[in-house]
Amino acid sequence: QLHLVESGGGLVQPGGSLTLSCGASGRSLDDYTIAWFRQVPGKEREGVSSLSSVGGRTEYVDSVKGRFTISWDNAKNTGFLRMNSLKSEDTAIYYCAVVPWANEALDPAFFGWWGQGTQVTVSS
Predict the structure, then answer these.
(1) What is the mean pLDDT of the segment spanning 41-50?
(2) What H or E segment, with its residue span, contains residue 91?
(3) Do residues 15 and 86 lie in contact, with contact meaning Cβ atoms separated by under 8 Å?
(4) Phi/psi class of residue 12: alpha, beta or left (left: φ > 0; alpha: ψ in -120 to 50)?
(5) What's the chain's Rg over C-alpha atoms?
(6) Four-point Cα dihedral 105, 111, 114, 119, nearest 10
(7) CA distance 32 to 110
(8) What pLDDT score does 59 carry?
């Protein structure tokens, strides 16, 4: 079992930046796909970005390309989502999720380990 804990959310003005963290504990991972999803009330959970341990392959939803960067620190067993040039439409609860294999698609149906979520609010 893998335990995930997100942090780093908060209130930020449009154009600002935040870095979300996802700390993982409970088991080691030889291969993995880590992903970030977000959800607003009344809407389905949306894939934001993913990172595969094989080849460092990354994927981003079109709306965040060029603004968000996903990464993983092996030494800290922690994933990150750096979010720049934030917009009001980025407001959501952000979740990290992991599977213990590489190159999983950015689809919440395929991810079994989830964090509790962290709120990101972009507002002036």
Answers:
(1) 96
(2) none
(3) yes
(4) beta
(5) 13
(6) 40
(7) 13
(8) 96
